[in-house]
Every structure is written in structure tokens, then in C-alpha cells.
Amino acid sequence: MASRSQPTLIRVIDLETTGNSPPAHGVCEVGWQDVAQGPDGRWELYGDGGNILVNPGRQIPPITMAIHHIRNEDVEDARWWHDVARPVLDPWPRRVALAAHRASFEEQFCTPSLTHGADWICTWKCALRLWPDSPSFSNQVLRYWRNPEGMIHERGLPVHRAFPDAYVTAHHLRDQLNEASVAQLIQWSKEPGLLPRVRYGPDRGKEWREIEEESLVGFLTDRDPDIRYTAETEMARRRGGGHIGRMTPQDLLL
Q1: Where on the phi/psi map is residue 102: left (φ > 0), alpha (ψ -120 to 50), or beta?
Q2: pLDDT of residue 70
Q3: Judging by beta carbons within 10 Å of its beta carbon (0-12, 13-18, 19+), is residue 248 exposed, middle or buried?
């Protein structure tokens, strides 16, 4: 059992990069904020978090610079990703998981060899399950729709920088951990996203249980894995073999 000096800890990670597809693109900043379980079993933000600029080993395109405002001259003397990554991704006390909003992006750069095979929690996928009424599920929409308790507005700015984004995500993660178990969040994160509403077409904006079966069948071959998975899950529910939609308290314990 972890002592108070060695709490159970999950580290939220956010990356700023030169683009979306390694190895063609590289990391130019990493930020983190820890969330820890206290002696009362409740999860809270832990420590101050931080950020490190990283030399991506290539030029930052202007279109990407315009998003995070990290310039080539800001990172030309910074350390390389392979020198920075391991101590950031595997902190002491040893963490039980890593987390990110839309974690599949971070996982491309934070490979198992750098994370010692850590499990990931995707706060986007978990938000789809726990807060289906949100008008959108981006990190920032959730921030202003939910208004998480204790968030210091200025620490979450500027948007699209690694520490502020990790800080915002950590508040979502804290509240998710206080609604569902670590194991449940990890399991949801391993599956495609379970979308609460139809994304496009004549049924756009409807809950999946509201659409006609003919329309539902059309989504079973969609190119988007989240849409396919959601359609398959709703079809299974209609056939008596699955669940979709808002989770009841009993569902959250499964």
C-alpha cells in the first residue's frame, strides 16, 4: 500500500509537436501534471507539474508554429526527446498510468520503450462515457462546460502549450477518477470512442438509440472506427447483447 509520501499517481501528458505523424514529425515541448489518490481514496491534483522544451531535430512549419507559437530559435539549444522522455514519462513515485486528452496522439510519440509499457487513460474517450451531455468533447469545451472545481483560470493559459493543456486535462481526469475506477478508465481507453450522438448525415445530433435501423446499418461500415464501434454497440443493444448511452451508477461499477 502506497504511503502518503508515495501516493498512487497518474501523470497527465501533453505534447506540442512539429506535426501529427512521427517519425516525420518530432516533439518540441512536453508538459505534465500529476493526479494522485489521497488517503481518503479521493483523487486530486498533485504537485506543480511542469514543461520542458525539446529540440525536434527538424524545422517547425509555420502553420504549426501558428498554433503553439514555439519558434525554431526557442528549441535550437534544447535537449533531444530521447533524453527528456523517460524521466518525464516514468516519474517517481512510480505512476500507475499515463493520461492525455485524445491519448492516441501522445502515444505515437510516447512509445512503449519510453514509457516502460505504461497503460494510458484517454480523457476524451472517458468523457464520451461519463459526460455525454457535453456540447462537444474537446479539452477546452469540457473546461468551460464543466467549470471544474479548483481550476485556476490563468494556469490553463495559453491554450496549445504543453503545461496549460496538461493542467486542464488533469482536472477532467481527477473528476473521472472520482466517478469510475482506474481499471474502468483504462478499459474504455483501449476501446474505440463510444459516441453519444450521430456526427453527420440526416440524423446528425440525434442519440444513436433514436435513429432508424436502416440508418444504423449504414454506419456499420463507416471508415471512422469510433462511428463503426458505436453503431456496432447500438446494434448489439437492440439485439439484447450490449449497452450504449448514459451509464447508470451500476454500469460504472462493471
Answers
A1: left
A2: 98
A3: exposed
Could you report the per-residue pLDDT of 204-237, keeping only the tens digit for each? 999 999 999 999 999 999 999 999 999 999 999 9
Q: Which residue intervals of the chain bear CATH 3.30.420.10? A: 9-190
pTM above 0.85, yes or no: yes
Long-range contacts of 17-26 (CB under 8 A, 24+ apart): 17/56, 17/64, 17/109, 18/56, 18/58, 18/59, 18/60, 18/61, 18/64, 19/61, 19/64, 20/105, 20/108, 21/108, 22/108, 22/109, 25/56, 25/58, 26/54, 26/56, 26/57, 26/58, 26/81, 26/109
- pLDDT at 251 exceeding the cut of 90: no
pLDDT band at 247 (very low <50, low <70, confident <90, very high): very low
Set of cell numbers at residue 104: 492516441
- pLDDT of 252 above 50: no
In DSSP terms, 31 is beta-bridged to 14, 51
* Cis preceding linkage at 225, omega within 30: no
All three cell numbers of 91: 516519474
**Rounded to an integer, what distance in angstroms lies between the CA atom of residue 87 and that of residue 151?**
26
pLDDT higher than threshold 70 for residue 139:
yes
Type of residue numbered 217: V
CATH of the domain spanning 9-190, picked from 3.30.160.20, 3.30.420.10, 3.40.50.620, 3.40.50.150? 3.30.420.10
Place of cell 498533485: 46
